[in-house]
């Protein structure tokens, strides 16, 4: 927060009226389960998009970011894509969705400073959307309902608004998703926004993507989360993602289920012969991931991190062998992690085909772990490894 306020002041010449922040997130367990109506565990982590803002009177919006040199300047009545500052599509997309829901706002200035590494699997885009929505709420209070808006909340004597209630957070998550789907054109699920909004310090967020129920289980004890970024993103990733989605949906249809969530492991095994091999493999991964989230929750509630870590390894093996959304670099990172005595569990996190791994590492061994993995990774691939220890934090709002 401390860096965004001076940045705002430097650019706009006055201090900001408000500052907000939204955390990045990581998928802890439950891979590709979200669009299959399944179960997923996520964490909000201590990397943030900070946003400072203040009103202006001419109906114009100006947004600057420490990550991009060109400011975005546009008017409330004409929010279109602009080649000079494509990064601002997220801000515009979100504002358009708020407008569509009936939220009224006027011109404002905003400055962005982020500590979330871009495109490293921590979902900087989701945090930016959530933070933008929260800043607009500070400047022009609104209350979202499932379908539109209700009477806005009143600020208290210090000008603070009440925290967002659960239904408002869910409605906001849907607004963010619509912005990313419709304006930016990325076909993502709700998970990232829910994680950024519903995070709880020292807890994993458990999300049931069928009914959007959100719960928390403690993730505390003598272990920390470390993200290791492979530094690769394979060119076929987007096409592969869509293909996996189609396999999952086709498998559910062939099994007479609305989604793979409705398929039990034993039924899948019994009906293996009715599915093409690739669809069966994909279904096995998703059904297995749902089970691992359920078992993982039990392990966490019993404070059994060693057992929980085993589910992380199993999840990675299932990605590598069944779902086939891993790649040699991610497999290597998990192999190196497994060989480290401080590692309790490791797996790829997010879409796959590159990106990052999530590692659960014994407290006190984190620095040694990062050093050893980086050495091994560079020796075998010639690539420098970036890694980030993460604290689990409260969500935004
Ligand atoms: P991630 O996995 O981090 O979400 P994405 O490609 O989905 O990666 O989102 C990255 C995009 O989010 C950037 O291209 C930019 O448009 C926006 N973004 C992220 N961080 C910032 C920032 N600090 N300032 C401005 N825009 C940002
Ligand atoms: Mg993103």
Textual characterization of the structure:
By secondary structure, the chain is of the alpha+beta class. It has a domain of about 180 residues: Ribosomal Protein S5, domain 2 (2-Layer Sandwich). Helix content is about 40%, strand content about 25%. The protein is built from 11 helices and 13 strands. The strands form 3 sheets. Strands 1, 2, 3, 4, 5, 8 and 9 form a 7-stranded mixed sheet that branches. Strand 8 and strand 9 form a beta hairpin. The longest helix is centred in the last third of the chain and has 25 residues. The two termini are about 15 Å apart. About 50% of the residues are buried. The model has no long low-confidence stretch (mean pLDDT about 95). The structure holds adenosine-5'-diphosphate (ADP) and magnesium ion (MG). The site of adenosine-5'-diphosphate has 15 residues, from strand 5 and helix 3. Adenosine-5'-diphosphate binds next to strand 5 and helix 3.
Explain the layout of strands and helices.
Layout: H1 4-12, E1 18-29, E2 39-55, E3 60-65, E4 68-75, H2 89-101, E5 108-114, H3 124-139, E6 143-144, E7 149-150, H4 166-184, H5 191-198, E8 203-208, E9 213-218, E10 223-233, H6 237-254, H7 265-270, H8 277-301, H9 305-323, H10 328-338, E11 343-349, E12 354-362, H11 366-381, E13 386-390
Parallel strand pairs: 3-5
Antiparallel strand pairs: 1-2, 2-5, 2-8, 3-4, 6-7, 8-9, 10-12, 10-13, 11-12
Helix pairs in contact: 2-3, 2-4, 3-4, 3-5, 4-5, 6-8, 8-9, 10-11
Bound molecules: adenosine-5'-diphosphate and magnesium ion.
Adenosine-5'-diphosphate binds at residues 65, 67-68, 87, 90, 112, 114, 118-119, 121-125, 128.
């Amino acid at each position: 927060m401390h860096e965004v306020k001076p940045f705002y002041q430097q650019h706009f010449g006055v201090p900001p009226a408000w500052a907000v922040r939204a955390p990045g997130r990581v998928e802890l367990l439950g891979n590709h389960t979200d669009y299959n109506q399944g179960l997923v565990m996520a964490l909000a982590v201590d990397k943030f998009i900070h946003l400072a803002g203040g009103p202006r009177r001419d109906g114009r919006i100006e947004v600057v970011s420490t990550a991009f040199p060109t400011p975005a300047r546009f008017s409330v009545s004409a929010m279109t894509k602009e080649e000079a500052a494509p990064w601002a599509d997220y801000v515009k997309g979100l504002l358009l969705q708020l407008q569509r829901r009936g939220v009224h706002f006027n011109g404002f200035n905003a400055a962005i400073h982020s500590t979330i590494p871009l495109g490293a699997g921590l979902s900087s885009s989701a945090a930016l959307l959530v933070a933008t929505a929260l800043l607009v709420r500070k400047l022009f209070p609104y209350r979202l309902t499932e379908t539109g808006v209700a009477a806005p909340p009143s600020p208290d004597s210090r000008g603070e608004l009440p925290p967002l209630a659960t239904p408002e957070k869910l409605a906001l998550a849907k607004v963010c998703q619509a912005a990313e789907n419709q304006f930016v054109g990325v076909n993502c699920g709700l998970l990232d926004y829910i994680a950024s909004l519903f995070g709880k310090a020292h807890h994993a967020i458990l999300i049931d993507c069928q009914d959007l129920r959100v719960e928390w289980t403690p993730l505390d004890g003598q272990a920390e989360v470390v993200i290791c970024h492979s530094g690769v993103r394979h060119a076929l990733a987007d096409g592969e993602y869509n293909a996996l989605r189609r396999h999952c949906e086709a498998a559910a249809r062939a099994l007479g289920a609305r989604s793979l969530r409705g398929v039990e492991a034993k039924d899948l095994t019994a009906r293996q012969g009715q599915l093409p091999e690739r669809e069966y493999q994909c279904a096995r991964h998703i059904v297995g991931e749902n089970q691992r989230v359920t078992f993982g929750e039990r392990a966490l509630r019993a404070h059994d991190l060693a057992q929980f870590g085993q589910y992380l390894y199993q999840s990675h093996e299932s990605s590598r062998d069944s779902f086939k959304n891993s790649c040699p670099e991610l497999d290597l990172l998990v192999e190196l992690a497994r060989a480290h005595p401080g590692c309790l569990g490791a797996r790829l996190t997010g879409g796959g085909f590159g990106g990052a791994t999530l590692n659960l590492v014994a407290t006190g061994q984190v620095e040694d772990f990062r050093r050893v993995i980086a050495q091994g990774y560079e020796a075998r691939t010639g690539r420098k490894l970036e890694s980030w220890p993460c604290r689990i934090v409260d969500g935004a709002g």
